[in-house]
Sequence to fold (603 residues):
Amino acid sequence: MDKKQLQKFIQWLQEKNYIVIGPTEEDGQILIETISEPSQLDFSGRLPLYSFKKYLVPSREILFKYKKDDFKADLTAFKQALIGVSIFDLKAILLYNQVFEKDPYYQARLNNTLIIGQSQIPQFQDLSFKVWEDKYEEDILEHLQFDIFLGQAKEKKSSEFKIFTGSKKGQQIINDFAKQSGWKSDYEHIEYAGPIKEEGVSPEMLEIKEKMPGSLETDIWQNLDQRCIECGKCTIVCPTCFCFSLTDQPCLNKDEGMRKRCWDSCFYGEFSEITGGHKFLKNTAERIYNWYYHKFVRIPDEYNFPGCVGCGRCSMVCPAGIKIHEVLESIKTK
Amino acid sequence: MKNSYQPKIAVIKKIKIQTPEVKLFTLQFKNKEDQKNFKFIPGQFIEAGLPSFSEAPFAVCSNPNDSDKNFQICVRIAGQLTKKIHQLKINDQLTVRGPFGNGFPNNLTGNILLIGGGLGLVPLRPLILANQNNKNFKMQIFYGACEAKDLLFQDEYKIWQKSANLVLTLDKQCPNWKGNVGLITTLFDKIKVDSSAIAILCGPPIMYKFVIQKLKQAGLDDANIFLSLERRMHCGIGVCQHCSIGSKYACKHGPIFSYQELKNIPGAI
Fold:
């Protein structure tokens, strides 16, 4: 599919009442926004500052509207097409799909979402470092969940996209578009083969998982304690940070309000605080250890794949200059 | 699809003042079917709340055999929500989700030692009430409170003592108090604990460290020591991350854990 066809396809999605959301350039930065014109989309493969997280796991969502004791769930979701989702962000979607497997709000949203991945290989080209090595060959697509995937050949600077489908929904959409637009349908279907490669979790991931508990004896976390200012920026940009709190927001009308689910951050002191003021994560060192533990031990224990997609966004936004690849290296070598 | 966040409505049927700060609420679901289907295991908890005041976890503390009729929670004034709950009257309503968590092991037999500190007696009460006529259950209860006025369920001790050996201790000497004075650990210096006993602990975090030492000295197996852990909880279903303990969640895999499960997890106790 060439660029012109792709733009037609996006327009067609908009005509089908999809809200189209994708990477767009603004003041030299790549942001993920709702677009009105297909030409606004940036397919350069540069890493957007934020991930697609908030479109599947919103920063604030209303679980219930209540009137006295009557709690009414609002499970309506609008049709959205997430386009240009990088492999990093697709890996995060694998995690959401597991974590929110039984969550009716997430499932309603997912059912109304068309996920269109995109990769121009390699993605690391504009990172000054890499968190770890990974081959972004086509075989990686088997381990991602998407509806449609746009593959860009890396050797050619062409605007030609190879189309893959990863779901029945994706096939249906492509077939419908072909039928209605006259585009000569040409795609390859990829069957999802689980979140990890046949060889299992990478040895590097296993090594970090093994060494995490022992790292408590080292000075790694005390050193980070001195540097981290607990701003929570890393948790906001991290595509796999999903922790939340439930809070009620009363309305001005008597006896009415909303029960909301909002992003939280394990770097904030109240996160583990119980009645009486006791905190189970007592200091910055314990909180930052918990953050790494969640990504590199707890998530692998729960779902058997890493809780870090390797995008490096946390390092980019950290005002204290903490680099995740350096921390992981020190866990491995201590 | 089941919505685990959907609260049900429970009506307050009875309020009993336990201490100046603690009230015992007898609740019944507004919907009869909800009450009929409500079953809990001792040690499990519910998320109870009020619209505009959100929710908090409370141990269900009534006899599980009565769960088709009603259930009870004990509420201490500690924050906005509990202050508001204390102002409620009979026939007022609460929102309830759950029960959540694993509860105490259900195959307990032999010598059972229940150790409660302060409000820690609350989650142990259903276990006491459900096993009053259990011939396979030799129950001993160590219960410590700060002062005499803080002792919970005082009017029930006589009945409990028919089937259990209840030993009380107060941190401070109080007028007319003839029982033991000293922290709960001092009871271990006066009363021999059988090494084959199963110990079940619930109390403030500081109590665990010292009581476990005493239990280890008495020769108890790590797998026979059970603890009920308190954590901040929001979702109750092991998703929100507030109550994580290592790779486990207090709300989902707990709140009851054996010492064997916890001893190698930093920060668990």
User: Anything to note?
Assistant: Chain A touches chain B through 46 residues (CB under 8 Å).
